[in-house]
Amino acid sequence: MAGTPNAVARMLSLLGDEWTLLIVQRALLGARRYGDFAAALPVSNTVLSGRLQSLTADGLLIRSQYQSNPPRSEYLPTSMGRSLWPMLTSIWEWERRWVPEHAEPLPRMHHATCGRPFQPVVTCRACDGPASGKDVAAQWGPSGSWERSIPSGTNRRRSSGRRSGAALLFPQTMSVVGDRWAFALLVAAFVGVGRFTDFQAQLGAPPATIADRLSVFTDENILGQSGGRYGLTEKGLAFFPVLVCALAWAQRWLPSPEGPAVLLTHTACDRRFAPVLVCDQCGNRLRAEQVLPVS
Q: Which Gene3D superfamilies does the record associate with it (predicted)?
């Protein structure tokens, strides 16, 4: 339906909050009860209670009573919640490798199948070949447009953004997915938009908004500037797995009646692109239960 939020906008409304991502991540690693989450995350009781309630309402967690007297419940990830693991794995690796501002370095991930620390690699489901932002072409699908891909500012749960103490593990990721204009701007950079006026024309955002987001991305070395054009740095290009895994999740679980918001093509095989993560050590496809942080 014209003008209604598409899968991208709905995904950003659900996931554009760091506490939401961190709680889902802990649930995938085995946290079940309120005390498990409280012990694992430096989050206030008010915020934790609110996020658990909203994650249950949004279908990412299910609340199950395990004790009746007194009543006690646990929170289990649904299929929708469990399928966020490729996006969360990609975020963890990008922050670990490219963001030096963590108080303590993020540990590498361990692949239980081959028994080694690893880095996730994006491949094409159609041909099993490697894929990157340089060989995946994007075009709007039936429900796609910049206008429909940007969530409204009134329906989002926010963690106060990258400048607050809430940005604990994913500070620079949240400067992208935690801001309704920044995600769209980065996607525009991936499809070749490079000039200030072109960003403004494509996104329909106020000039001050575009200038602020470009400043953030250049400060964080996600974008570089040369000759009046902005382009993705090596660090910016490395965010590609997060973008495509987030998009794949959104279009699976939050579809529009008209069809996909974005159509991706792997230019190496000229077929529809869907991301698959593999282990860079053994080459096997990754599965959620096989990915563990190195202690």
A: Winged helix-like DNA-binding domain superfamily/Winged helix DNA-binding domain (1.10.10.10)
